[in-house]
Write a structure and sequence with these properties.
The complex is a heterotrimer of chains A (307), B (329) and C (388). With 307 residues, chain A is mainly α. Chain A contains eleven helices and two strands. Chain A has one domain. The termini of chain A are far apart. Chain B is built from 14 helices and two strands; from the N terminus they run ααααααβααααβαααα. In chain B, helix 7 crosses helix 8, helix 8 crosses helix 9 and helix 11 crosses helix 12. Helix content of chain B is 75%, strand content 1%. Chain B has 329 residues and is mainly α. In chain B, strands 1-2 form a two-stranded antiparallel ribbon. Chain C has two domains: 209 residues, Rossmann fold (3-Layer(aba) Sandwich), CATH 3.40.50; 154 residues, Rossmann fold, CATH 3.40.50. Helix content of chain C is 42%, strand content 22%. Chain C has twelve helices and 14 strands. A six-stranded mixed sheet of chain C has the order 2-3-1-4-5-6, with helices on both faces. Chain C has a four-stranded parallel sheet with strand order 8-7-9-10, with helices on both faces. Classes of the chains: A mainly alpha (307), B mainly alpha (329), C alpha/beta (388). Chains in contact: A-B, A-C, B-C. The interface between A and B is large, with 47 and 42 residues.
């Protein structure tokens, strides 16, 4: 394999990983702090993308669309929390699953009603729409590098927030033992609301950043949601650090697996079956990884609780 | 035995005698084809078969979710495996149910055993995720089976014969076969839940530590439940393949597993009658609403949310609350 | 006395046929109307409805009742829905589906249930050959044929090295096989991606490393939208010719826009096909639905015209299936694509073109005909079909 191909695939893997981290971060926080399974996180990602498209067609500026869409996603997340999820925190996980499943159904079809079923597109900001030459004849889109950079920046920001601020301390404490935090006199309701809103905004941000690369369509959040859950399970629920490492791991394993599975299989079998079995195995890789991790460490790599 | 059966399932005051509801359900199901004779058409009968097939899968899942508190997000995989057993054997010319059915049951039970061994080492949401993972693995494997249609699925030439007789090809006869299977599944699960085995599993749901202290190996009981649930789902898969004369990886998707969980919850957790009612309610609502408007999911989604928020205990819970309210006068 | 009875009998049978003629002709549409591919199902439904509207709500002189069912791309759900259409709603015709896996599932329930199935899109090889069915008609094409267009063009235009990519399902495999049937140059790589994969970063890196003269892809729906955008972003459009089928068409162009300019496709039609009935259709479709029609729309429009011509020929009496089928085989209608006739396996014999993406003066995107690649092309599987 030429090294340039490997370099590009590693970059692609990092980009996917960073995207997964943005989504998984909110998910793991909500799960860790509020013990709430939020399946609707995927549609929050989708909504971010759709809102960005809508605001772009109103304002014509990517930056304006980004800011407005972020604000709108935040508002929407807070609304969901206030109206529905708040009442479900003390119910068991199954109720969370069903309620958020209902929200998925509603929003997936709702966006179809509002924006139509055809895939939509968000143009990239002019400044970043070029490509950078990585090797002979191989151009890597600048925007993908921007996505990687933004993701890493958010990771650093989250780290600073969680490890070095008071609210971060409360979040960490809440992930460890929410009842105790409440007993210590902290307004746990407000904390939950902030965590939820922030998580929703992160998911929306991921959606907005990815919209110029992927098409914006109903149901775009569903596959990403499953991947995000795999990330937080491997990383350990409630742990941002775990989510970050697991996301990068999964991004790399998935991308490298998809690109090299057929080639690796061709070493041991005929090209024709290798071509169909390869993609199948590549799709299964992350699940196999998750099963192995859970077998060795049933609570993930860096669980927040009971540490 | 009778006394302990009744005693082990708590009855709300003023409720009808135990057994009325299931008796009612099965009576309605038994009479359906006769009603269909008058409304004309075998469509109602084939719809009824489909509802009952999913009810079998839902009852099996309720064993896990309702009684064992093991939320399996990969249950559809067992249904799919049972279906694929029928499909693949059929592609090789083996079309008798006397072979296909045991194979379907064995394959799904075996997969349940192998995956259960790994899954049951985890708890809570980790359990949910790992069952999902195994479900996805089954799904991707089926999608890559090029000789058996892969993603497109596999058409089955005809329904299975039973000991050489083309019994299942008659829509009405097939319906009663499915009904018989549902009744058998229901009675079996009911007996299981009321037995000592069932009490251990239910106890483990409440307080696993205490059960372990008494001396029961919770893990083995849970694994047994998991295998039984998987096998029963395989039965549903066998029937589904025969009903549609088609198998596809879509039978195993995680969305399908989610739908099964919704069916169980809709009817009311921890009540086998509820699983049947939930399956019927879900499928019939889907059927009715999709005829009304193409955008039915926009309505169905919020309905689910409302049910979760306000109708704790699902439809059965609602019904018994109503009965109590009326009883009080 | 005998004459009276005879007269009465004649009167009653006439009345019966007359009564049937007053009864609405029920037609079921099965298409994917939810999820990402919903736009295709919508085009199918819109095209059919437009035809019926243009014919004043009547096909073959009989008033029409259309029942629409959404298969949600779930084959077993599609089975339930078509059983409802055939057994409960008693439709005479079922028009659809979009996807070949749904077609495989519904073939038996529809045809054995007594209705006639007309596919305005899916056209797999098995139903053109060994599994051909008297009650099954296709107004689109046999998949291999459309894929062959790009292969022949690549061969004829001197392209030497090609990179192939398609989703990992039957239609995808048919696509690449169809291309290779006519292309004798070097296949640099043949890649099957999971269905509905949206991020092609891995595959694009492979393409760049392989440096082919051209790529040939079959990536329907959202897959195509994403790939085209990412392909252009990776800068590969400057060095590699883009050949495709169903990847850059009117259903995906609104999202792809400038990224797809100049890319090639192969089809049996394009909106700028120059005949009067097509021009009228495109104008009417744009006026009614605000979008440029794609093949899904025009083929279901043709399906409606086909039903219209056949029902007219049997004078509204569809119960005589032999006569109805014979009338359908005649295909005596003005197809939007010009030349149209059925082969013995009920698949069309028609012309195929190389098309190219262009931007219209009004800002909308469409595919335009570059040249005719096949004339009166019959699919290669007809010889395996038992029907003669």
């Amino acid at each position: 394999m030429p090294s340039s191909l490997l370099v590009v695939q590693i970059l692609n893997g990092l980009q996917l990983g960073v995207l997964l981290f943005l989504i998984a971060a909110g998910l793991t926080l909500v799960f860790g702090v509020m013990d709430f399974i939020n399946l609707a996180h995927g549609v929050q990602y989708m909504l971010g993308a759709y809102l960005a498209v809508a605001f772009y067609s109103l304002t014509g500026s990517f930056l304006a669309a980004l800011i407005l869409a972020l604000a709108a996603t935040l508002v929407f997340g807070l609304l969901l929390e206030f109206a529905i999820f708040r009442h479900l925190y003390d119910r068991d996980h199954l109720d969370h699953v069903i309620a958020t499943f209902g929200i998925i159904l509603f929003l997936n079809h709702g966006v179809k009603l509002v924006w139509g079923a055809a895939p939509l597109s968000l143009p990239m900001p002019e400044l970043f729409s070029g490509s950078v030459k990585l090797a002979d004849g191989l151009l890597y889109p600048v925007w993908r590098l921007v996505v990687i950079a933004c993701g890493l920046l958010v990771a650093v920001l989250l780290y600073v927030l969680v490890a070095h601020t008071r609210i971060g301390m409360l979040v960490r404490a809440g992930a460890n033992n929410a009842a105790m935090v409440s007993a210590l006199g902290v307004n746990i309701r407000r904390l939950f609301m902030i965590v939820f809103g922030f998580g929703a905004m992160l998911a929306g941000f991921a959606g907005i950043m990815i919209a110029p690369i992927l098409s914006v369509e109903p149901g775009m959040g569903d596959t990403v949601l499953i991947l995000a859950f795999v990330v937080i399970v491997i990383g350990g629920i409630g742990s941002i650090r775990g989510a970050f490492l697991a996301a990068l791991l999964i991004g790399l394993v998935d991308t490298l697996g998809r690109s090299f599975s057929v080639d690796i299989l061709r070493l041991v079998m005929e090209p024709s079956p290798a071509r169909t079995v390869g993609p199948a195995i590549a799709s299964m890789l992350i699940y196999l990884l998750m099963a192995v991790v859970l077998y060795i460490r049933p609570s993930g790599l860096f669980p927040a609780k009971g540490r | 035995m009778r006394a302990s059966l009744a005693a082990s399932l708590p009855r709300p005051r003023g409720a009808l005698p135990a057994g009325t509801l299931p008796a009612g359900i099965f009576l309605v199901l038994a009479l359906l084809p006769i009603v269909a004779l008058f409304t004309g058409g075998s469509y109602l009968v084939s719809l009824g078969s489909r509802v009952m097939i999913f009810a079998i899968a839902a009852v099996a899942l309720d064993l896990l979710v309702g009684y064992g508190a093991l939320i399996s997000f990969g249950h559809a995989a067992f249904v799919g495996l049972g279906a694929y057993a029928v499909g693949i054997l059929s592609a090789y010319g083996i079309t008798d149910a006397l072979v296909s059915l045991p194979v379907a049951l064995a394959v799904s039970a075996a997969y349940a055993f192998l995956t259960g061994v790994v899954c049951l080492r985890t708890k809570g949401v980790y359990f949910i995720m790992i069952t999902l993972a195994f479900g996805q693995m089954a799904f991707f494997t089926a999608s890559s089976l090029a000789p058996f249609g892969g993603d497109d699925g596999l058409t089955i030439a005809a329904r299975n014969t039973v000991a050489g007789f083309a019994l299942l090809r008659n829509e009405r006869a097939f319906y009663y076969v499915v009904l018989f299977c549902l009744l058998g599944t229901y009675l079996f699960c009911r007996a299981l839940v009321a037995s000592r085995f069932g009490r251990v599993v239910r106890g483990a749901k409440e307080n696993p530590v205490r059960v372990a202290t008494i001396g029961f190996d919770v893990y083995r009981f849970q694994l047994a439940t998991y295998v039984i649930a998987g096998g029963l789902a395989g039965l549903a898969g066998f029937l589904l393949a025969n009903a549609t004369e088609f198998v596809s990886p879509a039978y195993m998707s995680w969305q399908r597993s989610g739908e099964l969980i919704v069916m169980v919850l809709l009817g009311g957790l921890g009540s086998l009658d509820g699983a049947i009612i939930g399956a019927a309610a879900y499928l019939l609502t889907e059927e009715w609403l999709s005829g009304v408007t193409e955008h039915w999911k926009v309505i169905f989604g919020p309905v689910l949310v409302l049910i979760v928020l306000f109708a704790r205990g699902g439809l059965l819970g609602l019904a018994s609350a109503l009965v109590r309210r009326l009883g009080r006068g | 006395m005998k004459r009276l009875v005879l007269l009465a009998a004649v009167a009653m049978s006439l009345g019966a046929t007359g009564a049937q003629a007053q009864e609405k002709l029920k037609i079921g549409i099965i298409a994917t109307l939810s999820g990402p591919p919903a736009v295709l199902g919508q085009q199918l439904r819109n095209g059919f409805n437009l035809a019926v509207k243009t014919l004043d709500g009547k096909l073959g002189g009989r008033e029409v009742e259309i029942i629409v069912a959404d298969d949600e791309l779930k084959p077993d759900l599609a089975v339930t829905k078509v059983k409802a259409l055939v057994e409960r709603d008693k439709v005479e015709f079922v028009v659809g589906p979009i996807f070949s896996n749904v077609l495989a599932a519904i073939m038996k329930p529809v045809t054995e249930g007594g209705a006639i199935l007309i596919s305005p899109n899916a056209g797999t090889s098995n139903f053109a050959g060994k599994e051909c069915n008297a009650n099954f008609f296709v107004t689109s094409y046999q998949n291999d044929q459309v894929f062959a267009v790009s292969g022949k063009h690549a061969q004829d235009s001197g392209i030497k090295k090609v990179f192939l990519m398609a989703p990992n399902y039957q239609a995808g495999k048919d696509a690449l096989a169809g291309f290779k049937a006519f292309f004798n140059g070097e296949i640099v790589d043949e890649v099957y991606v999971p269905l509905n994969q949206l991020d092609f970063s891995a595959e694009l890196a492979k393409i760049a490393a392989a440096k082919p003269d051209a790529i040939y892809v079959f990536l329907p729906g959202g897959m195509g939208v994403n790939f085209v955008k990412q392909f252009r972003q990776a800068g590969l459009a400057a060095t590699t010719t883009f050949l495709s089928t169903f990847t850059v068409d009117e259903s995906t162009l609104p999202a792809q826009q400038d990224a797809a300019l100049g890319f090639f496709g192969g089809a049996n039609w394009a909106p700028d096909l120059d005949n009067p009935q097509n021009k009228a259709f495109v104008a009417a479709y744009e006026k009614e639905f605000g979008a440029v029609p794609a093949t899904y729309a025009f083929q279901s429009y043709d399906a409606a015209l086909l039903i219209d011509s056949a029902v007219r020929q049997v004078k509204g009496n569809v119960t005589d299936r032999e006569a109805l089928r014979a009338a359908m085989m005649k295909a005596d209608f003005k197809s939007l694509r010009g030349n149209f006739k059925f082969n013995t396996n009920h698949y069309p014999i028609q012309d195929f073109y190389l098309v190219k993406v262009a931007k219209r003066p009004d800002g909308k995107f469409e595919t335009q005909i570059v040249k005719k690649v096949f004339e009166n092309y019959a699919d290669p599987h007809a010889k395996d079909c038992a029907m003669k």
